Backbone:
């Protein structure tokens, strides 16, 4: 049974992501929404004519392939100047957030999936459910931008109703 459902039955307080907007969250609450999937750190390509976004399996040079976390989160923009910092404003504007992203789900009034660490209590469930980028990526280092099209993938957007990779 999901943690939030148990809280509802027990009459306990609802979890913060069900009672607060993104703008109302503390810094700690905001950071805890990141499930550690690593999908936002995959390189994406945009068709300049249509605006269509396609995903690649090429990860940012700072993304650790095993943990799916940034190797230098606090200083990431010094190394990767075009790293997109998620803010309330950017989350409302970014069209490419994966369908499983907690920031997107909360923004859209949806609940978190069962495998999210805030629900499961275990940071490994995002990987066990097959949601994360763990073991599926290559580093951008040494790959020419012209070759990115050779690494197109659709799996970041594929999720079933049960919250697992389709």
Residues:
């Amino acid at each position: 049974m999901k943690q939030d459902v148990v809280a509802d039955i027990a009459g306990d307080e609802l979890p913060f992501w069900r009672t607060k907007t993104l703008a109302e969250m503390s810094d700690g609450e905001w950071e805890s929404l990141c499930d550690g999937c690593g999908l936002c750190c995959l390189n994406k390509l945009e068709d300049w004519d249509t605006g269509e976004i396609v995903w690649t399996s090429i990860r940012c040079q700072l993304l650790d392939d095993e943990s799916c976390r940034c190797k230098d989160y606090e200083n990431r923009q010094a190394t990767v100047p075009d790293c997109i910092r998620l803010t309330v404003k950017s989350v409302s504007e970014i069209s490419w957030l994966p369908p499983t992203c907690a920031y997107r789900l909360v923004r859209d009034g949806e609940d978190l999936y069962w495998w999210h660490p805030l629900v499961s209590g275990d940071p490994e469930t995002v990987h066990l459910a097959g949601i994360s980028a763990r073991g599926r990526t290559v580093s951008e280092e040494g790959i020419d931008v012209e070759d990115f099209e050779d690494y197109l993938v659709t799996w970041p957007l594929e999720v079933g109703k049960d919250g697992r990779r389709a």
